[in-house]
């Protein structure tokens, strides 16, 4: 939670259009460091998907899953390379929020596979992904 204060909960953070901070102060460098850590996590998730394909576990991979696993590292790398910090950090926050619920769903699926018909988490996760995509598209037009 402390690291989220670096970007999103600052009083000078503009949710509509945040300029890129090219300075080398501690706050800017920490925001960039968090971005690189997030990229490493996204690359690990991509390797997980690659291993699923190599092990012929195609039934576990949906088009949405494949899109997120390939799209996220590319988008995060591009943002870190050309515009670290600033408004690009909103993607990290939204992706992390959706990812948490995604993993809660997977955990519940593994722990109680017989009760998955009763659990509405799959619907919630799908709605969160749709809202996430909509927010990505709508914020990128600014």
From TrEMBL:
Pfam families per record: ELO
UniProt keyword list: Fatty acid biosynthesis, Fatty acid metabolism, Lipid biosynthesis, Lipid metabolism, Membrane, Transferase, Transmembrane, Transmembrane helix
Membrane-topology descriptor: Multi-pass membrane protein
Transmembrane segments: none
Any GO BP annotation: very long-chain fatty acid biosynthetic process
Cellular component terms per the entry's GO annotation: endoplasmic reticulum membrane
EC primary class: transferase
Reactions catalysed according to its record: a very-long-chain acyl-CoA + malonyl-CoA + H(+) = a very-long-chain 3-oxoacyl-CoA + CO2 + CoA
MF GO annotations: fatty acid elongase activity
Subcellular localization(s) per the UniProt record: Membrane
Domain of life from the UniProt record: Eukaryota
Similarity comment text for this entry: Belongs to the ELO family.
Name of the protein described by the UniProt record: Elongation of very long chain fatty acids protein
